[in-house]
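Try this one yourself first.
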């Protein structure tokens, strides 16, 4: 079995969140979805689990944050082009999300930022493959140094 990641997100309205994630290109997996939790497929190995607060609370004894006012995680999404970055950001905003800041173009990397209707932060980005191999220019390092 390949290594997979399941990002569990507490949401206030499962149906609204499902519609949002479908509009930004994810697909609902009905086998692992019901009225309290919905599985959204990003890729063959990455899933977003949208859990209503009552169900989410069964997995933790910690307080559920309000992601509109408290940052618990920022989720970066690697995409294949600048155009895909712009497209997912535009879709997110049209679907009820919020643009967090203007596009950032560092030459070797291009990114946007948006929050879903519950305030969870996303950073779709594209990185030039050669730059990804070399690493960011301001983080030059000597692989032989200890």
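Now uncover the answer:
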């Amino acid at each position: 079995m390949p290594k997979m990641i399941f990002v569990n997100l507490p949401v206030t309205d499962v149906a609204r969140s499902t519609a949002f994630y479908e509009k930004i290109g994810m697909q609902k997996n009905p086998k692992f979805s019901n009225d309290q939790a919905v599985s959204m497929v990003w890729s063959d190995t990455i899933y977003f689990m949208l859990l209503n607060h009552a169900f989410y609370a069964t997995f933790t004894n910690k307080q559920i944050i309000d992601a509109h006012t408290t940052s618990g995680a920022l989720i970066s999404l690697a995409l294949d082009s600048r155009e895909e970055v712009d497209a997912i950001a535009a879709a997110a905003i049209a679907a009820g999300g919020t643009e967090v800041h203007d596009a950032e173009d560092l030459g070797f990397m291009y990114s946007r930022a948006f929050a879903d209707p519950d305030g969870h932060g996303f950073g779709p980005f594209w990185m030039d493959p050669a730059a990804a191999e070399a690493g960011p220019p301001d983080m030059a390092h000597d692989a032989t140094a200890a």
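Discussion: The chain has four helices and eight strands. The domain at 1-58 is CATH 3.10.180.10 (2,3-Dihydroxybiphenyl 1,2-Dioxygenase; domain 1).
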